[in-house]
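Table S2 (continued). Query chain:
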Amino acid sequence: PFLYRTHLVINGTRIVDGGVADPIPAEEAFRQGARRIVVIRSRPVTYRKDPWLENRLAAFATRDCPGLSQAIFHQPQAYSRCVDFLQHPPNATQVIQIAPPVQLKTGRTTQQRDALLTDYALGKALANAFIKDFKP
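Corresponding output:
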C-alpha cells in the first residue's frame, strides 16, 4: 500500500492488498475447513520478516487510516505467526509449501529482465516438480 499511486475505493471504503493483514492466509484456509493446504511462497521456507524501518515508515505514512497503519506496523509479527502455523500445522492437517530454496534475484520493483526471467524459470520448475509429485 505504501507504493500505490492511487488507492482502490469500493463503496466508500479504501481497499488494500489482503497480504498486509494476513501475509500467508493458511490459517484462514484451515478455519474454513481446509486440511490440505498448498502455499506458494516467494521466499525460502525459513524466511521470517524482521521488524524493520520500512514497516515503521509505511505505518507513519498511512497514519490517516489507523487500521491500515496498525496492520502495516504489525506485519512482521503476523508473518511470523503464519510461518509458525506452516511449520507446525494442527494435527490431521498437511501443509505443502512451494518455495524457492534461496532468496530470489528479484524484489518488489525489479525491472532487470535477466533477473525476472531467472526467477520465472525457477518458479516454473518448482511448480512442475510439485505437479509431478502431487498425489491427490
